[in-house]
Amino acid sequence: MSPAARRLLLAGAARRRCLSTDAEASASASSQLPRGKRWDAVVIGGGHNGLVAAAYLARTGRSVAVLERRGILGGAAVSESDLVPGFRFSRCSYLLSLLRPAILRDLELERHGLKLLPRSPSSFTPCLDGRYLLLGPDADLNHSEISKFSKKDALAYPRYEEQLEKFCKLMDFVIDSAPPEIRQEFHASMVDRMKDRVDKSAFWGGLLRHAIQQGQKNMVEFFDLLVSPASKILNYWFESEVLKATLATDAVIGAMAGVNTPGSGYVLLHHVMGETGGQRGVWAYVQGGMGSVSSAISKAALEAGVQIVTNAEVSQVMVNETTGKVEGVALADGTEVHSPIVLSNATPYKTFVDLVPANVLPEDFLCAIKTADYSSATTKINVAIDRLPQFHCCKDINPEGGPEHMGTIHIGSESMEEIDLAYREAAGGVSSKRPVIEMTIPSVLDKTISPPGQHVINLFVQYTPYKLSEGSWQDSNVRKSFAERCFSLIDEYAPGFSSSVVGYDMLTPPDLEREFGLTGGNIFHGAMGLDSLFLMRPAKGWSDYRTPVKGLYLCGSGAHPGGGVMGAPGRNAVSVVLEDLKAK
Fold this sequence. Notes:
- The protein is α/β, with parallel strands linked by helices.
- The chain has helices at 3-12, 29-32, 48-58, 101-106, 139-147, 151-175, 190-214, 216-227, 230-237, 241-252, 264-270, 291-303, 348-355, 363-371, 416-427, 476-493, 509-516, 568-583; strands at residues 41-44, 64-67, 79-80, 89-90, 116-118, 123-126, 132-135, 275-276, 279-280, 284-286, 307-309, 314-319, 326-331, 336-338, 342-344, 378-385, 408-411, 436-440, 455-462, 501-507, 552-554.
- It is built from 18 helices and 21 strands.
- The strands form six sheets. It has a seven-stranded mixed sheet with strand order 7-6-17-18-19-16-20, with helices on both faces.
- Strand 6 and strand 7 (132-135) form a beta hairpin.
- InterPro entries: FAD/NAD-bd_sf.
- Pfam families: NAD_binding_8.
């Protein structure tokens, strides 16, 4: 049976069958879709948020189709095996923690094959002077390790973590709720308007209850964290440069921002608000790579009756110019897929500038979308190596992997000044001379992604501007030079790393945009500054997943609460869709 025929069979057969997210589709989109069918809902994009939205909608008995441009599902949460023979890369995202616990439970993702591999220790920062810092979920280990640099910091660290955990409890409520958008719908009935006011009052009332539980002092500290630079927060708590720099990397990861950028303190919180196995701030590898997350969600969606179509590029959202209502989507091959509801998992820019006809959108809304911050300074390098790197600061050499290999390895992050310098170089259009590198080796725990004795390395690198002041990322010499710069920096900490490289795959910001549809190469579908969050995401007046086009909704990371493999935008968007359907 051909792959295309098998996909058709799986989508329409017994609910417990599943689709392989790693098989390249060869059939045209039109051959995979029932001719003339009118769907209850269509989802643009088979990334994890789109799949979450489709699964929840289908569980209410509605017919749902997911249309994915690439031949493989998952968006940025994807595993690919054909880049270096024998190795399986998590090509974009590479760790899991933010996925909402309710989604794990509701969609029974473990039953659908999701297996998490918690990391302990979770962080390792080697120093050129021969010292190192290990951190993780073990409080005794943290105290012992931090004490090597500062006994004062060792005492402060548990209090710092405790405060962040308190803030996370408040954020849980916000993350799992649709923003209470204040938009006057003149066509709505008086009953609908009153209900809308009650719903919004319920949100603000719930938020007030959580704020009261925090107490006035904690709320002042919370707002300080939201608006302050990460450097201010970390300088208040700690004195050790190595500890501060290690923690500061969470505040700037994925952002065109530095440690002194106002609001970077919030991104610090964003990366500790997740959990693994009920433990806050614990990040895990996923067995088989991040594509296994998307695979498990797609299996839950298929079980609920969702039709998933790959190689189905949407070229336009069809809108009735008379009524202003969505009528479905048109595909690049000319196929029309009809539905009164369309959820877009694409970025806001892609959705409203490239797919929706400009004449149906308010001018001020379109202007806000076009001028939003989609800048990126992130490059992902996936590396295959023939042996584990051995760090000169570690006395014991373990070819099978020691504590230093388990978690995120922070290269070039011995001080916040180093991180700030790297950022300022990129702000001037130059890729950082000494990049800030977050290095992970998932194959130490996951034996399914590399040949025996060999390993997969993820390098999440900053800072690399989208547009270079000199040269171009299209130039193979520029690309090779930057990759070798990163490998040479690692050599300073782990001599011989460069010679262990078997092959690699590099994704610069333009590559991320071209291959994964990430506008500007921004992994969050748009900046995560305070001016781009909550009621301001993706644009003022349109934060509740609805759009100026009736029946068109956003369900991706460009909507509240933002980026990361969390699924919250997809799940929250469905709650709004169901509200609107109920109102009708």
